[in-house]
Design a protein that fits this description.
mainly alpha, 3-stranded antiparallel β-sheet, Serine Threonine Protein Phosphatase 5, Tetratricopeptide repeat, 4-stranded antiparallel β-sheet, elongated, about 55% helix, paralog of FGE (formylglycine-generating enzyme), about 475 residues, 15 helices, 3 domains
């Protein structure tokens, strides 16, 4: 009996001891799991791993698969965050993001993972922007050295935006300076001979600024840019010689002397040749009230050409052609394309008759008078294909804004829907008035030139060259003169 009682007591004691041991293991498991997770929140993956290994051993002792899975998850997260730390310290942002994203998929992922991942993504975005900035700057510099100024401008514009996004004020300043330099020379390339003087002067200013010690423009790019200007100036000199224009050749000779020893040597060589060129006047004395203003070398005739400073008025039209138009005397005359050509023929005959008089004031023996070609008209506007208008002559919004600005070359003054007087309005850099605005004008082949005065900037009003008039509108004329000795 005593033996049985003793045996039962031993069994009960063992049960009590086992229960105490199990309870202690449960407590130790929870403690280890909690400490492991706490270490993970501190990104202490080494100590966290030790705690989760302890938790795993206790879970096995307890024969509790669920607890063992919790410990295994902790070990997995410890490994993933450990890899993320190594990647972070090595500057491998893509690897860091990858391990963090994997850690974040776990059921009991630490809160620190979400914050760390957010920071890593921001860092990754900044790294990508930094790489893009470096790439844009490299491409822009290469384009500058190859005289590819439009691509250079595009890349430096992108670089300016990226530097601003990165809050890098020094990089913003550098990219902006390079962009401005590229833009000045892009204008030289795109504007060409028609606006060469203005483009040259702007680019020369940019070149001088870029030559300062603080400028970021590479020395190689400065040499290339100087050659671009030298080529422009020499080509312009040749164009002036082609039409025997002493004034224009002299002006370009002065510009050449800003471009160093090579340009000065060239200028010295051609200086004597300029003295034999004709000194074309800026404008001729009024002829029946018509003032012909010098434009330049005609892209159609290859000779010097002049254009009427103003649209032909109704009064002038009646005096030369003998017919009244629908408009008041001071207003632009309106007519159809054939009548416009006939007017030029009568004006030419009157001109030839006047040339033979002893008191003839214009100083030329003869000349052809006609309506302008489309190419001559575009020369007269000082606009350029590509940036100002497309192949269909639709003027860009940016060009319209520039045209309407007070300092623009051809602001269409009158968008009220009413015709304005011919004498008055904006004078462009050639001395021509209302070339783009007010009444549209006939070309020699019957096309309609100019933004229509009634259009207010929409619809047909954005088309610079029209194949026919807009219904119920007026079309006038502006003759051109090609002098002959």
């Amino acid at each position: 009996m005593l033996a049985t009682w003793l045996a039962n007591a031993q069994v009960r004691q063992k049960m009590i001891n086992d229960q105490k041991e199990t309870k202690q293991k449960l407590t130790d498991f929870s403690t280890a799991l909690s400490k492991g997770r706490s270490f993970l929140e501190q990104t202490n993956t080494v100590d966290a791993k030790q705690q989760f290994q302890t938790a795993k051993r206790l879970a096995r002792d307890l024969q509790d698969p669920a607890k063992e899975r919790d410990a295994d998850e902790g070990l997995l997260i410890s490994e993933q965050l450990g890899h993320a730390l190594v990647a972070m310290n090595g500057g491998k942002i893509d690897d860091e993001l990858g391990w963090l994203q994997k850690a974040g998929t776990n059921k009991n992922a630490p809160r620190i993972v979400a914050l760390w991942l957010q920071d890593a993504k921001a860092k990754g975005s900044a790294a990508a922007d930094s790489a893009s900035l470096a790439g844009a700057m490299t491409r822009g510099a290469a384009a500058l050295s190859a005289a590819q100024y439009s691509p250079a401008e595009t890349n430096f514009t992108a670089a300016t935006g990226l530097a601003g996004k990165l809050n890098d004020s020094a990089a913003v300043t550098k990219a902006q300076q390079l962009k401005d330099f590229a833009a000045s020379f892009a204008a030289v390339v795109s504007l060409g001979a028609e606006q060469g003087a203005r483009a040259f002067d702007s680019a020369l200013d940019a070149l001088k600024k870029a030559s300062e010690p603080s400028s970021p423009v590479p020395v190689e790019a400065l040499g290339v840019a100087t050659n671009v200007l030298l080529k422009l100036a020499t080509n312009a000199c040749q164009a002036a010689f082609d039409v025997s224009d002493r004034q224009e050749a002299t002006a370009w000779l002065a510009r050449l002397q800003n471009l160093g020893e090579q340009a000065v040597a060239f200028a010295t060589i051609i200086q004597p040749k300029i003295t034999v060129l004709k000194d074309w006047p800026g404008e001729y004395s009024p002829f029946h009230g018509i003032i012909f203003v010098r434009v330049g070398k005609s892209p159609t005739a290859g000779k010097m050409f002049y254009a009427s400073k103003y649209e032909i008025t109704a009064s002038q039209f009646k005096e030369i052609y003998g017919v009244e138009t629908s408009t008041q005397p001071a207003m632009p005359a309106d007519c159809d394309p054939q009548v416009a050509k006939d007017f030029c023929l009568k004006l030419k005959k009157t001109f030839d008759d006047e040339c033979n008089k002893p008191d003839w004031k214009l100083g030329i023996k003869s000349g052809s008078i006609r309506l302008p070609s489309v190419d001559e008209y575009l020369y007269m506007t000082r606009l350029n294909d590509g940036k100002a208008f497309d192949k269909n002559y639709v003027v860009t919004q940016a060009t319209l804004q520039r045209l309407r600005a007070p300092e623009g070359d051809n602001p269409p003054e009158n968008f009220s829907g009413k015709l304005a007087p011919a004498v008055g309005g904006h004078t462009n850099s050639l001395g021509l008035v209302n070339v783009v605005g007010n009444i549209p004008e006939w070309s020699e082949n019957g096309q309609v030139l100019g933004l229509t005065y009634y259009a207010k900037g929409v619809g047909q009003g954005k088309v610079l060259i029209n194949s026919e008039p807009v219904p119920n509108t007026l079309v006038g004329l502006r003759p051109v003169l090609i002098p002959e000795d």
